[in-house]
Structures are given as structure tokens and as C-alpha cells.
């Protein structure tokens, strides 16, 4: 794929024969960002996974960088009131289900109490395609509505490995402090390592890279990042 001049100039700053510390990689990615908008910094972790294995969970990033999201909660009775008290943007049960079936999707995250999932499950074709379906694995199906909303508002995000065994996750913006972005990346990597499948053999983390939205990737020293992530 042919790259533009700005990308090529930025890429010259990367020593392809060097594995950088996480802090160095973040600092270099920030330096190479050339877009007119505040680029996102992403960590990419390549894992040793069999086809039958996957890694999926959530992590609360210590340094938040995204705008507050609109959270919808499917709940009834006391749990609905708990959701309202905790600051949910939308709360309801069958009324919201019908509204979504009619095409309304003005929210960023959906949470549901377990008793609602039988009805919410009917929205699978709609919410599933958009990654909005509540799921116990991402702690969005729970009776602890207050706790779930508290973590989501603090910056809890989902991560999952793709078909090639790579986890991609945004961990900051270029206008943040290097230390803040590096801390978010380190916490993310630590959580990924904790989700290592019980039957996974050998080295679990194969490579780690840091990059900005438009910039080239920077390889990170695996030994350094794994040691500091634990």
C-alpha cells in the first residue's frame, strides 16, 4: 500500500531494528502524529492463540480520554430506579425494546439486568451487528447496575482478540501526557495477560506495537512491557 509523504517522513524516525520501551514507543508515536486532529493512540497486542481460543473482557483505563457515553439500561422496578440514580441516559424495558426495533439507536452502551435478557435477546440482529448487545463477559449483564455504570463512566472499555489473534485498543490521545497513555497501555496489557486461556502453551504475548491513527507502528520490547505489566 502506497503511503503519503507525511507518513513516509514520520516512518523515518522509527528504528525498525530496535524494540522500544513502552514509554519510548508512546512518546515516539506522539512525535510522529501529523494529522490536523488529535489522533488516537492505539496498542496492538498479538497473542499466541489457537483457532478455538479467544480473549475478551473489559478494562477500566486509569486515565480517561473519551467523551462521556450515553448508557442505556434495560431494567424494571427497583433496578430501573437504581439505573436512573446512577446517571443512565435511558432506562426502560419493553418500551425501549420496541423503540430499538423501530430503528432508534441513540446510545453508546447497553446494560441489562439478567431477568431482562430473555426479551433483550430478540434484539440480537440489531444490537449484535453494532457491538451493543449486553453480555456477561463484558459485565454489561448484571444486577449491580450502580457498579457497572460507575465503571463505565470512569472509562471501562471492552477488548477482544480478532480472527488473527490480535487485540487492538485505543489507550489515549496525542494531546495527553506520555505517562498517562503509557499507564493506560500497561493496564490494558496486564488485563490481556490475565485472560490467558488455561490451555495456552508457550509465550502468550508475541508482539506489542503502539501507533497513532495516521502514523506508523512502533515495536515495543516484549520483555519490558510484560515485566512491568504484571
Indicate the structural class: alpha/beta
Q: Uncertain runs with pLDDT below 50, 5 residues or more?
A: none
Radius of gyration: 20 Å
Instruction: Provide the helix percentage.
Output: 25-40%
For the termini, the CA-CA separation is 37 Å
**Strand proportion:** 15-25%
Task: Describe the largest sheet.
Answer: 4 strands, antiparallel
The pLDDT mean sits at 92
SSE order in H/E notation? HHEEEHEHEHHHEEHEEH
Shape: globular
Strand order of the largest sheet: 7-1-8-9
Q: How many DSSP E strands?
A: 9
Query: Helix tally?
Result: 9
Describe this protein's structure:
The chain has 230 residues and is of the alpha/beta class. Helix content is 34%, strand content 21%. It has nine helices and nine strands. It has helices at residues 5-11, 22-32, 77-85, 94-101, 117-120, 124-127, 145-154, 178-194, 222-229, and strands spanning 40-47, 56-60, 71-74, 90-92, 109-112, 156-160, 166-173, 205-212, 218-220. The strands form three sheets. It has a four-stranded antiparallel β-sheet with strand order 7-1-8-9. It has a three-stranded parallel β-sheet with strand order 4-3-5, with helices on both faces. Helix 3 (77-85) links the parallel strand 3 (71-74) and strand 4 (90-92). The protein is globular. The two termini are 37 Å apart. The model has no long low-confidence stretch (mean pLDDT 92).
Amino acid at each position: 500500500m502506497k503511503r503519503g509523504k507525511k507518513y513516509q517522513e514520520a516512518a523515518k524516525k522509527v528504528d525498525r531494528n530496535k524494540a522500544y520501551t513502552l514509554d519510548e514507543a508512546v512518546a515516539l508515536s506522539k512525535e510522529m502524529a501529523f494529522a490536523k486532529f488529535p489522533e488516537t493512540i492505539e496498542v496492538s497486542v498479538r497473542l499466541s492463540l489457537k483457532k478455538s481460543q479467544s480473549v475478551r473482557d473489559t478494562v477500566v483505563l486509569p486515565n480517561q480520554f473519551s467523551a462521556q457515553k450515553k448508557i442505556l439500561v434495560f431494567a424494571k422496578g427497583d433496578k430501573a430506579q437504581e439505573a436512573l440514580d446512577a446517571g443512565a441516559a435511558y432506562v426502560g424495558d419493553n418500551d425501549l425494546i420496541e423503540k430499538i426495533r423501530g430503528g432508534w439507536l441513540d446510545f453508546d452502551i447497553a446494560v441489562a439486568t439478567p431477568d431482562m435478557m430473555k426479551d433483550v435477546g430478540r434484539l440480537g440482529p440489531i444490537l449484535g451487528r453494532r457491538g451493543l448487545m449486553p453480555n456477561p463477559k463484558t459485565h454489561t449483564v448484571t444486577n449491580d447496575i450502580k457498579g457497572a455504570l460507575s465503571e463505565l463512566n470512569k472509562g471501562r472499555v471492552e477488548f477482544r482478540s480478532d480472527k488473527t489473534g490480535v487485540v487492538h485498543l485505543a489507550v489515549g490521545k496525542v494531546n495527553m501526557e506520555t505517562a498517562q497513555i503509557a499507564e493506560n497501555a500497561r493496564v490494558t496489557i496486564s488485563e490481556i495477560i490475565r485472560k490467558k486461556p488455561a490451555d495456552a502453551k508457550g509465550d502468550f504475548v508475541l508482539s506489542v506495537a503502539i501507533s497513532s491513527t495516521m502514523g506508523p507502528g512502533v515495536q515495543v520490547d516484549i520483555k519490558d512491557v510484560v515485566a512491568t505489566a504484571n
